[in-house]
Automatic annotation (TrEMBL):
<protein>
    <submittedName>
        <fullName>Amino acid deaminase/aldolase</fullName>
    </submittedName>
</protein>
<dbReference type="InterPro" id="IPR051466">
    <property type="entry name" value="D-amino_acid_metab_enzyme"/>
</dbReference>
<feature type="domain" description="Alanine racemase N-terminal">
    <location>
        <begin position="21"/>
        <end position="192"/>
    </location>
</feature>
<dbReference type="InterPro" id="IPR029066">
    <property type="entry name" value="PLP-binding_barrel"/>
</dbReference>
<dbReference type="Pfam" id="PF01168">
    <property type="entry name" value="Ala_racemase_N"/>
</dbReference>
<dbReference type="InterPro" id="IPR001608">
    <property type="entry name" value="Ala_racemase_N"/>
</dbReference>
Length: 394
């Protein structure tokens, strides 16, 4: 069983703040994702990792095929680095420079599919490249939110393409446009994949569970109809769906050929609240104790690594080791100092380390230039994050 002593021992010659990835936990999480996918390939969501060495590690494992990138510039960079030749960009791009890099590279064009959900996205590509540009592979995004009643929207705000009729109509527009090839359909069910059903009060858990079951049933029906309607227009190479939190329900949909997942590799605090799976905490960061303002409080250097999303307690990093620590409600995690209290605080001395977990999987990599990959009580190697490779994709 891992304790703070193991991580302290592994990094004893390194100065905090620092970040580690526990390879045993990372690999165990990968195996659990593969098990849950029940034979369907998993496309690795890069934004949840943001470290090329770790992406290459998981892509070398059985059951994982290709990347889902969050930026076109990122996708082109991965092709240039030889990470993979199979990439879907999950979000539409307005990056003219990245589009020009895509168009200029035969290898990139063969490897990358960009996301589109309206004719305006096609217009933007034409504006960036000219109307006689080489063929660009595109993926049509179907909105996967749940709309049980008129005016009620449950889920993330993504594509305007919601119905099978709209999907087929847009598919016809894509295939009629020179310079584009429709190769896939994606539908991300954020209200299932990204919302824990084991968090909060009992009533909240019951409501979330009920919503997710109803939403999954509706989406599986609508997605199937939409995919079949698009396939009447043109053959598809892939149908992507899901996320770490919805692997089971997404995989049960017969039209889905691959599942997207990434956060489950890291196991951040936002993924503690699910009944369907329990990822192991794989990425941790250590902050040093620099003050002892009272007997019951130890103040750590830095630490205000607040996660994106709706502001609130769920987005704040949490003390993990030693056990028995918590943040102060008044100060929280600060830009230059983070006080912690609790029974374990009394035993902390200046220079001791406190290990914390981030709320989201990939955003920790934006705070550190390197991850120390820990195997047992040793650092196996130190690898750069995107930041450490001087890459910032926004």
């Amino acid at each position: 069983m891992t304790s703070a002593t193991v991580y302290d021992l592994a990094t004893k010659d390194l100065d905090p703040p620092l970040a580690v990835v526990d390879l045993a936990a990372f690999d165990a999480n990968a195996e659990d994702l593969r098990r849950r996918a029940a034979g369907k390939p998993i496309r690795v969501v890069s934004k949840s990792v943001r470290c090329r060495a770790l992406l290459e590690r998981v892509l070398a494992m059985p059951g994982f095929e290709g990347l889902m990138c969050y930026s076109l510039a990122e996708a082109v960079w991965h092709v240039e680095q030889g990470t993979t030749d199979d990439i879907v960009v999950a979000y539409p791009t307005a990056d003219h420079e990245a589009l020009r890099r895509l168009a200029a590279s035969d290898e990139a064009r063969a490897s990358i599919a960009i996301m589109v959900d309206s004719p305006e996205h096609l217009d933007l590509v034409d504006a960036a490249l000219g109307h006689n540009h080489p063929e660009i592979r595109v993926c049509l995004e179907l909105d996967a939110s749940w709309r049980p009643l008129p005016g009620v929207h449950v889920g993330t705000r993504r594509s305007p393409v919601f119905t099978p009729k709209q999907a087929a109509a847009f598919a016809r527009k894509i295939v009629s446009r020179p310079g584009f090839r429709l190769v896939g359909v994606m539908a991300y069910e954020g209200q299932i994949a990204g919302l824990g059903d084991a968090a909060g009060a009992r009533l909240n858990r019951l409501v979330v569970g009920w919503m997710q079951r109803r939403s999954a049933a509706e989406l599986n029906r609508r997605r199937g109809e939409a995919v079949r309607a698009v396939q009447e227009v043109t053959p598809l190479e892939f149908v992507n769906g899901g996320g770490t939190g919805s692997i089971e329900s997404t995989g049960a949909d017969a039209v889905v050929t691959e599942i997207a997942a990434g956060s489950g590799l890291i196991g951040p605090t936002l993924f503690d609240g699910y009944t369907r799976f329990k990822p192991r905490p794989a990425a941790l960061f250590a902050l040093p104790v620099v003050r002892r303002p009272t007997r019951n409080i130890a103040t750590l250097f830095s630490g205000g690594y607040i996660a994106s999303g709706p502001a609130g307690a769920s987005r704040v990093p949490q003390p993990y080791l030693p056990q028995g620590l918590k943040l102060l409600g008044f100060e929280g995690a600060g830009e230059v100092q983070t006080p912690v209290t609790g029974r374990a605080a009394r035993n902390l001395k200046l220079g001791d380390r406190v290990w914390l977990r981030h709320a989201k999987a990939g955003e920790l990599a934006e705070r550190f230039t390197h991850y120390h990959l820990v195997q047992g009580d040793q650092v196996e190697r130190t690898v750069p994050t995107y930041r450490g490779e001087h890459q910032n994709f926004g």
